[in-house]
Every structure is written in structure tokens, then in C-alpha cells.
Here is the input.
Amino acid sequence: MCQANGLENIDTDILEHQLISIPKKMKRNKVFCKSIGGLKIASVDGTEIYRSEKIQCDECLEYHINTKEGIRIDYVHRIVLSQMVGKMDSSYVQTILGMEKILPKDIIGDTSEEGHEGETTSAKRLILKMIERYGKFFFDVLTTDAAYTNAPFVRFLYELGKYLVSRVKNERTDLYKEIESLSELVKPVVINDWQEQVECWIYEIPCLSEWLAKDIPTRGFKIIEKSYKEESGKRIYTKEEVFRCVTTLP
Here is the structure.
């Protein structure tokens, strides 16, 4: 308990400075992931780092869980992380570039309703901090999961001069339905990775309707990945995955 209480008095700015110094040195020594097609690619994603039913602090998020015994409150800390992604070899090291807390609304001054800020709100703060730390041009493209596929986040990146590649998962959205229906009218590009034994069927929709932002062109993709193995000269497919995504890349 004494050790836990002692952490309250630690200057986290010093720790953060030390963490930042590592990616900065890696950037100078050019040991980030290699670019893809000349584009430097970063990723952001949210993750949970702490959960308790009893221990809490002012920055905890509250999750109300339905149980047989009634409502249980879990006290949770969530953060957004960023990394560089791309082609890697033995000389390249992947590291965390930065992290940002997802905060309760009362911490950030929004007392209009209960709850916590969205993951994308925290991600925006993180991206601006990373640009300040590593320079405006340290990344060109941001890859995200489906939580970031929305007009405000697309416009946020667009105004920074950055591109988005994002998943589309919600089957009920018009964006998902458009990608699914238009992909049936497109001839796929087929790529076979002999080393990984994976075949990819890529269906590109060159221009989507104005679901995300009217003045920001977006393209859609449906990608079917099939893993296989060779037996007696025959190709046997063992696994199939389907991905749908959008991008603002021209």
C-alpha cells in the first residue's frame, strides 16, 4: 500500500520525457518501420490498462455492468496508443510513440452529461502532441479501427494534411452497405503471397458517396484473404477473412 500511495507523488512528466527520448533517437537513427509506397504510416488504437471493482481515482472511467446480483460498477483506465507501422526487418524496431488517457467528462470540463470522452477525442490530443514532439511530417497516413470511421475525425486529419485508412465493421451503416454492394460490380485484383501462403482478392470502389465528408473524396475496399496449404499439388484453403475499409488517400 505504501508503494502504491508513493506513486501519487511521482513526477510523471519526467517519465514521459524519458519515454519520448527513445522514439526521438530512433527517428534520428532511422530505425522506424520502412515506409510503404513512400508513405510513412502510423496507427492509433485504444486499450484498457486497469480495471477494479473497488479501487478508484478521479480519472477512472465508470462502466456499469448488469449482473445477476444487480448493477456492478467497474473502475477503468483506458488509453490511446500510437505506433509506426510498415515494412520491418531485423534493423527496424517498433516502439510506442505516445499515449493519451481517455478522461471522464468532468475532468475535461464537460458536465453536461455523465460518462467519458470518446476514444477519438483522446486520439486527437495524442496526434497533436506527437506532431509537436516529432515534427509535422513524421507520418503521412494514419491507420485505425472502425471506431474512427466518422466525419469529424476524417476532417480533423484532412485539415492536418494527413490521410486515413480505417476499418468499416457496422453492417447497419450505409457506408458498409455501399462497399458491400458496389464490390460486386468490381473486378478484383488478386495477389498471391507464396511465402505466407495467403491469397488476397481486393475489390476497390474508386469513389464512395458523401457518407463521411462532402468535400473529402473517399475510396472503399473489400478485401478477402484466404490462407492455404499445398498438398499433393493441390491448393487447399484453410481460412478465409473479409475486411472492409475506407481511405482518403487519392
Q: What stands out?
A: Residues 168-250 form one domain. The first strand starts at residue 41 and ends at 52. The two ends are 55 Å apart (CA to CA).
